[in-house]
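Researcher: Let's do a round of design. I'm pasting the structure tokens now; please hold your answer until I've finished.
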């Protein structure tokens, strides 16, 4: 983004030497998110300039969905995109959690790129998405034809995310990974469940990440009297994340929505049983059969609390679920499978 509040106009103005940069400046001043459009236009220009020396069989976009992709179609190269989940859902959740009318307006302005993404996605030959739930939502929100949608589950590095016999389990411990908005990832729901349990069982709860909303989350913890139960790591390195998974007895994924659900999949790869909400694609990842984890209704702290109590009290069940979760990841969610199925979509598209 060309414009931000950290720089003065005196620093910015000399850089405005093209219509695209002028657009970025104006969009930034108006509170719009211009990058999907501007990146796609620049990508088109870069590809076009390289066609004299290089040949491309496929152009694969990763949820940019800017108008530049429609220009790329004129290069006579098949174009497809991956949509992880509809941004419409993020917009709905963010706006629903904002009480201030001005902030609601600003959020509406920021998400104004969604109209462009709707129009572009409907004009691409194929859309890859990462779960059947996401495919359903993309069809509903973007209006993409079901014939154009292909599901390719995200791959998990099962050689990296695995158990480590040198890491000792911490008794009565559970882990939650919050890679984004605390509310979106279900932190309040987890805290409400912990409040119901704090006088019944001993617990040690570690929340990974949540840096963007950590002050708000810390305030929630204090309001519920959970300071002695809940701790935060902030952002950690990948090796430390694996170690934390291996040290916990189980994982909780209480998200409001997931297009896929990496925290659930990574925990299962490390042989952790998982408690997850029936939100988005989490039932697809965890499984509906109850072998690898427990699914609870969204927004039901009592059900979440009961599931936590059940796993805390049953070590054989934790071990059994952990083994089943690892097998499920190996069977359905390896990177080899993701790569192979992606290539199948490429071959299908090239053959059209």
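Researcher: That's everything. Go ahead.
Model: Designed sequence:
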């Amino acid at each position: 983004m060309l414009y931000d509040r950290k720089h003065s106009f005196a620093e910015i103005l000399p850089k405005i030497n093209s219509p695209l940069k002028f657009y970025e400046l104006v969009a930034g001043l108006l509170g719009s998110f211009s990058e999907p459009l501007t990146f796609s236009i620049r990508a088109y220009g870069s590809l076009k300039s390289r066609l004299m020396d290089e040949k491309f069989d496929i152009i694969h976009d990763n949820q940019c969905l800017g108008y530049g992709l429609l220009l790329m179609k004129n290069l006579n190269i098949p174009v497809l995109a991956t949509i992880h989940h509809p941004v419409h859902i993020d917009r709905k959740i963010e706006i629903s959690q904002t009480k201030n009318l001005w902030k609601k307006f600003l959020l509406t302005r920021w998400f104004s790129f969604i109209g462009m993404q709707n129009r572009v996605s409907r004009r691409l030959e194929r859309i890859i998405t990462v779960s059947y739930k996401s495919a359903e939502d993309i069809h509903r929100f973007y209006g993409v034809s079901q014939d154009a949608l292909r599901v390719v589950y995200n791959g998990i590095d099962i050689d990296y995310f695995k158990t480590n016999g040198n890491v000792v389990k911490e008794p009565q411990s559970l882990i939650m990974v919050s890679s984004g908005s605390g509310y979106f990832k279900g932190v309040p729901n987890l805290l409400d469940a912990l409040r119901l349990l704090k006088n019944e069982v001993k617990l040690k709860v570690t929340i990974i990440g949540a840096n963007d909303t950590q002050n708000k989350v810390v305030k929630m913890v204090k309001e519920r009297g959970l300071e002695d139960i809940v701790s935060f790591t902030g952002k950690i390195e990948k090796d430390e994340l694996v170690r934390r998974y291996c040290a916990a007895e189980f994982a909780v994924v209480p998200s409001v929505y997931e297009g896929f659900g990496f925290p659930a999949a990574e925990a299962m790869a490390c042989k952790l049983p998982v408690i997850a909400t029936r939100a988005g694609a989490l039932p697809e990842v965890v499984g509906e059969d109850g072998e690898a984890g427990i699914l609870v209704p969204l927004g039901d702290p009592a059900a979440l609390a009961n599931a936590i109590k059940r796993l805390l009290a049953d070590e054989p069940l934790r071990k059994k679920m952990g083994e089943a979760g690892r097998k499920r990841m190996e069977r359905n969610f390896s990177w080899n499978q993701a790569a192979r199925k992606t290539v199948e979509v490429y071959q299908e598209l090239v053959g059209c």
